[in-house]
Design a protein that fits this description.
globular, mainly alpha
């Protein structure tokens, strides 16, 4: 924090809150449809090669939905962020194994990994409901 521009440093907790909310919303937006349609999620995960799809689809749906909500609220931010970052590591590896390139392929996933790791190390900040 010593290298921050002093004027901007007063906004760091607000920036962390915004980062948390946007990161969490992205995962809720992707996890909630999976949770609402576990059968479809199961079929998709089977087609992608994650078998049994019912197990992996359910785990991902729960982690993304409730992990995203936890991040938004600032509840166990570090744990939720690690789980979500790992989720994106798996997605990135899967995309690379399918021959996808960085641009138009897995750039979004590595951005989410980075944000997840940042939140896991920084925590939820002062505008959190619970700090570990």
């Amino acid at each position: 924090m010593d290298n921050m521009i002093p004027l901007l440093a007063i906004f760091s907790e607000w920036a962390l809150l915004i980062l948390r909310v946007v990161f969490g919303l992205i995962f809720v937006a992707h996890g909630w449809p999976k949770l609402r349609n576990l059968k479809g999620a199961s079929e998709n995960f089977n087609m992608m090669g994650f078998k049994p799809g019912a197990l992996w689809g359910t785990i991902v749906a729960i982690v993304e939905t409730f992990g995203g909500l936890a991040i938004i609220l600032g509840i166990a931010t570090e744990i939720a962020a690690i789980l979500l970052a790992f989720d994106m590591v798996v997605a990135t590896i899967w995309k690379i194994s399918r021959g996808q390139k960085l641009v138009g392929g897995f750039e979004f996933e590595i951005l989410l990994i980075t944000v997840g790791l940042a939140l896991a190390t920084l925590g939820g900040g002062v505008y959190s409901l619970y700090v570990l």
